[in-house]
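Deliverable D2.4 — example input (structure tokens):
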């Protein structure tokens, strides 16, 4: 049986990477830029509380076990007065920046309407969470970490 894939944080600034990704998002966005708000979560405490809220949107067991090993969470909020619609071209542009930097993402729609706003100190009457992405860099060498090798000693 294959070992479970684990994820680690990027070797780069996640804030810088997100800034570049959002520049691409805005470049392709034809709607009003103030209609959307991104939230990036990397603090373990906020990540754990967020995943409690989002757990109902990740029913598959294999994905649910993977999610807890991904160190970044990005949530897209939209103004509630607009039709619920994820802009496709800006999303692909953003994902191409994230994925080009080695960040693997898992994208899901969220059914939560209020609790994420409260958690991120946003006003629920002005914002509605739409989608969330979990991400991390695959740790490809982790399966070999327990591999015994007589030619190498670790201290």
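Example output (designed residues):
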């Amino acid at each position: 049986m294959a070992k479970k894939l684990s994820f680690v944080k990027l070797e780069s600034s996640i804030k810088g990477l997100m800034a570049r990704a959002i520049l691409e998002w805005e470049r392709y966005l034809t709607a009003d830029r103030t209609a959307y708000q991104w939230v990036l979560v990397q603090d373990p405490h906020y990540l754990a509380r967020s995943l409690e809220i989002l757990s109902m949107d990740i029913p598959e067991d294999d994905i649910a076990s993977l999610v807890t090993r991904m160190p970044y969470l990005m949530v897209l909020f939209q103004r509630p007065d607009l039709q619920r619609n994820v802009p496709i071209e800006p999303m692909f542009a953003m994902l191409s920046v994230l994925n080009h930097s080695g960040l693997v993402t898992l994208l899901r729609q969220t059914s939560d309407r209020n609790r994420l706003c409260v958690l991120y100190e946003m006003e629920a009457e002005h914002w509605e969470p739409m989608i969330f992405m979990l991400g991390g860099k695959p740790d490809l060498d982790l399966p070999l970490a327990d591999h015994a090798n007589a030619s190498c000693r670790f201290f």
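Residues 14-28 form the longest helix (15 residues).
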